[in-house]
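fyi for ur records
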Amino acid sequence: MTLFTGTGAAGGATGAAAVLLRRRGAVYLPGCRAVEPTALTLAGATLVEGDLLERGFLVSAGLRRALAARSEESLAAAGRGLLEEIDAAGGTGPDLVPVFRGFPATVPPHPRAWWAERVLAVLARTPMQPCAVCGAVGAVDAVSPCAHLLCWECFDRSGVPACPVCRCRIDAGDPFLRPTAAPTVDAGHGSPQRRLRVLSLGGDLAARRAHAGAELAALLAWTAALGPQDTTDLAVLLDAVGDRTDMAWLPDPIPARETRARVLAWLLDDPALLPTTLPAVGARITTPDDALRLLAVRAGGDPGLARVRRFTAVPRPLRRTLLGALDRMDPQLAAEDLRRRAGLWKRAAERLHPFEHATAFPRAALAFASLRGLTLAGDRLAATLRAAADGVPGADTSTGTVRIAPWAAHLEAALADGDTGRALRLFDGRPDELLRRLNQLLLLADPAPAPVLAALEAAVPYAAPAALLSALGAVRDRSLAVGNRVFLPRGAPGRVHLQPEHRAGLDWYTVRRPAEEIITREVVRRAAALPQVGTAVIDADLDGVVAPFAQRRTSRPFRAPRTSGTPVTLQRGSVLPLPAGRVLRLFVHLTESGASGPAGLDLAALFYNGVWDRVGACGWTRQIHPYRRGQDFPEAAVHSKELNVPPAPDGACEFVDLDLDSLAAAGVRYIVTTVDTSTARFGNLAEAFAGLTVRDELADGLPFDARRAEHRFDLAGRAYQSLAMVVSIEDRTMLWLDVLPAPTDNTPHRWLDRLASLSWEVTDAFNRVCIDLVPWVGLREVAAWHAAARAHTVVVRHGDGTTTTYRRARGDAGWLADRIGSGAHNPRRDGPPAEATDARLAFLVRGDLDLPAGSEVYALYPDDLDPARVRLLDATDLVTSLTPLPRRPAHPADTATDPA
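which gave:
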């Protein structure tokens, strides 16, 4: 039910108001003269509350008073904008169709009864809700007659004669509304049970600008590459509060290099202000990759340099600035970096013209000459390059060409000769490089790994946190030479490569265990440097979630349920329990575009037994197609029929409902979900997303809204098919794969056998994370390091509702982390159980704890948490907060955000 007409997602998605709504849960209203509320404006405020309730929000007392105190026209405009911003923040784009088209001239006769009916329906579904006054989550009641939700601490029968939210008089004899029958309104349209979120008044437009500046500063302080939503927010906030004339707001340095490239490109967007912005840009170009990322962003490419099709023309002032920055770098190190991305740099040189500026920037010209293997003639350029080479170690022009011996060549020679000592000396000052080659060094030094372990001990305090986690997982992976190695290509979302493991294993006692202890001890030391708390809580169900070891958020994240729009960051290979329920509903929604042309659509579920024999499928028709005679599972799986995809704005949806109990009885163990578009690549479609939700019955009659789905993910890339996840019926778990098969054969029935093989191999490889045999670290282990190092008491919540309490003794955080990870609980040492609600540091699957204000919380599904009350952490925060000691590395590659 929507009160106001709007323009859909496009109107609110581009403003700072939508960003602050999503990130802070706050609304900002333009200043206007307050008026005495009238019956019409009070009714209008109630209708706004009803629209917000259906979107998962409660209106705070301050916000309701501010709405009711506006004129009728101002209230209509404020309500319309608010609903547009909420729909934009939630990732939805339907037009807002008015229920009362004559508003504010006409309103329904009983808006309060309409509102109360919906409130009672929400309470019947989820009784534990936040109080509209204090925001605390707990037992609340709907006050009579206005139906606002209040806790008992904010309401006293004998002392409060009026509702603190709307000021209406409360019925002293019967102050609370009670449902007289089962609610007839489905307030969530079949959504899972969830708490509402209190929407607060952030202030006026001046407060909005100040808060937008604070959010911009927080994004610029991130040490990890921003995800898609944060990247969009960054662009919006830069346009809203960024200032190209006074750059006092701009930090130096900006830690994340991709963020730095985007900000520097934004500074250069106004040609008239180049004299002001160019000095700031040049000062922040510290590596060749910084300059290349900037050129890529200016050309509309990827700052991660995964896909850069072309470089645009570079104005002469910017050309001199970039060449000057390159000229200030060590030519040997600069030449090495240019060689690592030779193809891109050769194309960039066509825009920078380094040899035309060789006199002004000879060292930069020398690095480019080495890249191209330039033949020296007897001209002025050759003389300039020879003079520049005289002062560069390793530079040689005696053969008539410019050659600068790279560091990697010396390293490979040392490794090929088996000279561990020489290789370790080359790693001096390059801690991240040493960690990337740790396995190779340990194998080379075996059976005398002491020098390598000593070098590792000296390097780990200065290594990037992602390099530490990557090295830890890689060392664990060398226990047995079995199975497949998994490669996730950087810059190729959805791609996965498997290669049989043929490397020799490393000995546990002499090599693996000492190396693991050195790395984990350093991680715990870094966590202990963060602010201390009394109690921390960890959900044991985080065990299957893979930590973001590469410091890069997934480019195709899950969407949080309901309306928050917050991406649920889930790394490939993560295993999650399915929500409770018998029927699994798969869905897909696609919309054509001019680039895609006509597109067919098919959502299919493929069924395999415990040894991965294909036993059935559900797609194209309503029932399973058995592959074995006599094996038919009527009504166990129902398809909604195949559709052709119409153009925007409608699009098309398909559903598959799966009765998990019936499928299990028929011998099905695994369900592989696939989406196929027949003729159009996902990336060419205007909109493409899929997901799943769980219901209690195969046909429960409830309407379905994809916005409220338990899991929703975007479909992107050049593929025609998507292998998104594998569901294990026996374990009731979902393995997130996010694999896009190569775009070769786009006919599903022709690649069923290949799909079965791919599903089995990838599932087997990813599932080995549970026994620490793949190069990843679980998020629960990272949480245990943080909790053990920062809290005296740690409460672990188990899936069955029980808790285990651990207490730190003698300050040994590493020992406590080991006990948490192994479950070695000692009631005598750990003392009585602690309350999880006392925790000020929490690592949760769902934000279902009422924690003290100011707590730090990571929640995989954060919808129930108010970002205005607690500090929400991303999974990447848990990694990037483990900052190294401030020693400048010898090579700029060691400062990069993402390890190679």
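The chain has 29 helices and 31 strands. thats all i got for now
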